[in-house]
Amino acid sequence: MQNGYYDVTGAMVTQFNRLNVISNNLANLNTTAFKRDDVVVGDFKRIFQEYKEEMPLRDNTKEASKFVNAAMSRVPHIVEQYIKYEQGGIKNTGNALDFALKRDDAFFMVETPNGIRLTQNGSFTLNNVGILTTKEGYPVLPSTYFQNKQYIEVPEDGELRVNQSGALFVGDDEIGQMYLVKSDDIKSLTKEGESLYAFKSTDELTQLENGDFVAQGFLETSNINPVSEMVGLIETNRLVEMYQKVMKSHMNDLNSDAISKLASTKA
Predict the structure, then answer these.
(1) Which residue among 48, 116, 124, 259 is least packed, with the fewest CB closer than 10 Å?
(2) Which long-range contacts (CB under 8 A, 24 or more apart) does 167-175 make?
(3) Residue 73 is part of which domain span?
(4) Rounded to an integer, what distance in angstroms lies between the CA atom of residue 104 and that of residue 64?
């Protein structure tokens, strides 16, 4: 009986974790270029098969059964949380410092106090010395950054123009090239807030050159589908309510059993 109570409790915790992911997606519905998170909830049968395939012991033995029982829980739980990089919508802002990436695997490179990071949020601005930065003040890196450590500086009275490859012009003069990259292992990227992604090594990044990558005067919207997220929210809440009822039923049974044993002992 107690095992059932623990299993239901674990399942409810799983739904609370799923609820946190859905709530975060909905909170970022209007965040520029936000990519939704999703989770994989593992069921007992599938997880059992995974552990069975990697089991270091001979199958159909007591030792194998003990290994499986020790290595996994029978409770459905989140086995993976991942980012869905499908591109969001593109909206026209008319702002020369707004840039939308046309590929869902493309990123700008920016410099933060914690090191170089990637972003797909192309809502940029100029700081007080004319350097192109994110709204948080992080410099947007040019393709030559690792050679000369220089940033993209736009002349005070210049009208900035950016072509589809990310080359920057003021008038007829090219003043730089955005450092556009794609990750060779996009699943290894991790979110850090402020629309930033951390990567493990620059060796996993490939520079994008001479292609149709950038649209000036546009921004990418989030790829959140509010209807889908609300359906998930309702489903999760219903599961939590169901687990609460089951827990209450288990607790009532435990209490009744304890009272019966106590009464029989006194008798």
Answers:
(1) 259
(2) 168/132
(3) 2-85+226-266
(4) 44
Instruction: Give the tokens for residue 138.
Output: 């992080």
Q: What is the domain count for the chain? A: 2
Distance CA 126, CA 153 (A): 8
Task: State how far the Cα of 106 lies from the Cα of 79, in Å rounded to an integer.
Answer: 27
Q: Are 83 and 191 in contact (CB under 8 A)?
A: yes
Scanning the chain, the segments in alpha helix (DSSP H) are: 2-27, 44-53, 62-71, 145-148, 226-266
Is residue 41 within 8 A of residue 18, CB to CB? The reply is yes
**Other C-beta atoms lying within 10 Å of the C-beta of residue 9:** 15
Q: What's at 27, amino acid-wise?
A: A
**Tens of pLDDT, residues 217-255:** 999 999 999 999 999 999 999 988 888 888 777 677 666
CB 101 within 8 A of CB 213: yes
State how far the Cα of 195 lies from the Cα of 180, in Å rounded to an integer: 16
Residues 96 and 215 in one domain: yes
Q: Which residues contact 49 (CB under 8 A, 6 or more apart)?
A: none
Q: Token digits for 195?
A: 């629309």
**HSE (CB half, 13 Å, CA atoms) of 137?**
3
Q: Do residues 160 and 174 make contact, with C-beta atoms less than 8 angstroms apart?
A: no
Helices 44-53, 62-71: inter-axial angle, 10-degree rounding? 120
